[in-house]
Structures are given as C-alpha cells and as structure tokens.
Amino acid sequence: MSITYFKRFQMELDLDQFEIPALELPGGYRFVAWNDNDLEKHASIKYQSFCNEIDANVFSCFREIEGCRRLLREITSRSNFLADATWLLEHKGPTSEKIITVGTIQALVDVQQRGAIQNIGIHPQHRNKGLGTSLLFKSLNYIKARGLQRVMLEVTSQNIGALRLYKRLGFRIIKTVYKPAPITNY
Ligand SMILES: CC(C)(COP(=O)(O)OP(=O)(O)OC[C@H]1O[C@@H](n2cnc3c(N)ncnc32)[C@H](O)[C@@H]1OP(=O)(O)O)[C@@H](O)C(=O)NCCC(=O)NCCS
Which of 83, 112, 152, 162 is 20 to 30 Å from 175 at the Cα level? Predict the structure, then answer.
C-alpha cells in the first residue's frame, strides 16, 4: 500500500456581503429538514452521490454505505452540529407516488465560528438542474440566520464541477491543504 496526497482547497464566503438568492426548486422536488429518524436516508444518498466520485479516493468512508452511516452518526452527534442547516432533497415523479431521496447537505460550526458545509451530494441522475445550488442556498440561509458571518467548505482540487460551482457563487480559496490517502494496489 502506498500513500498519495490529494490537493484540497479551503474556500470561504462572507455571508454579510452575499445576498442569498431565493430559488424555486424544479417541479417534483422538495426540501426535508433534519430529523434523527432520517439518518439512514442521508447515509444512503451520501453513498450514492459520492461512491463513484474523486472524493471516494480521498475519504474511504464514501466507498461503503456503512462508512457513510458512520460519518453521518459522527457529524450529527457533535455538539457543534447545525441541525437547522442540514437538509435532504426528495423527488416524486409525475407518474409515480414513490418518493426518492436525491440530495443531502450537513453543516457544523467550526472553531472560528464559521458555518462549515459538510459534503453536499446530489444523485448523479439529478445533477445539472440547479439542485446543488438550491441545497447549498437552503443551508446558507440557516447559517446566516444563526448570525454566523462566514461559511467555509473544503473541496478536492480535481473536483472541477464542484469547484466551479463554489467559485461561481462567490466562494474564494483561502488555503490549500494536502490530504494523505492510502492507495491500495490490487
Ligand atoms: C457538486 C454537486 C453537488 C453539484 O450538484 P448539481 O445539482 O449538479 O449542481 P447545480 O445543478 O446547481 O450546478 C451544476 C451545473 O449545472 C448548471 N445548472 C444549474 N441550473 C441548471 C438548470 N436549471 N439547467 C441546466 N443546468 C443547470 C450550473 O450552471 C452548473 O454548471 P457549471 O458546471 O458550469 O457550474 C454534484 O455534482 C455532486 O453531488 N457531486 C459528487 C459529490 C461531490 O463531489 N460533492 C462536492 C464535495 S466538495
């Protein structure tokens, strides 16, 4: 086994300078506020959103549903967990009564009293419709309502789509960090 280092950017947005746009979700989609009973739904959509993405190479927890459950339990049991800024996104198709979970976001307050976004994920089949942007704005509204002036997140430099999304919204890179990750040679 060898170690590789993934370049990651810490990004920040000043919420005092940012008017959070009011976006309407496309038809059939709705937000669901955090509820302890929904941990499994968050874990499942986290897994589906991340398992085939670059961050599954950086963080082994994303490669298995059990890893995602552990991650969600760890985040949501912390004293700095921001339940109000933690949301699911659900979808109900026009011809079906079945409701499916398509997105997830969590947030914490960090030691610098900033909102800290954790691992936003949208199911691959529901991307490029503005849902990631809407989910992020939903969380930012509650972070701002808490009186937190700044919000931060971390993104892997190779995650071009996510990086472009955050830059477009006004997040700026404040720090570069290198995350070691074991690479298993089969
Ligand atoms: C990053 C991620 C959450 C973005 O979700 P998304 O729902 O596709 O995000 P959006 O639709 O808001 O934005 C993506 C693109 O769709 C475009 N878009 C927005 N609304 C649109 C619409 N109504 N119709 C078509 N395209 C639209 C955006 O302009 C954006 O384009 P860009 O690539 O030029 O920036 C998603 O790709 C994902 O889950 N990735 C895997 C997990 C991950 O890496 N998460 C980030 C960890 S830091």
Answer: 83
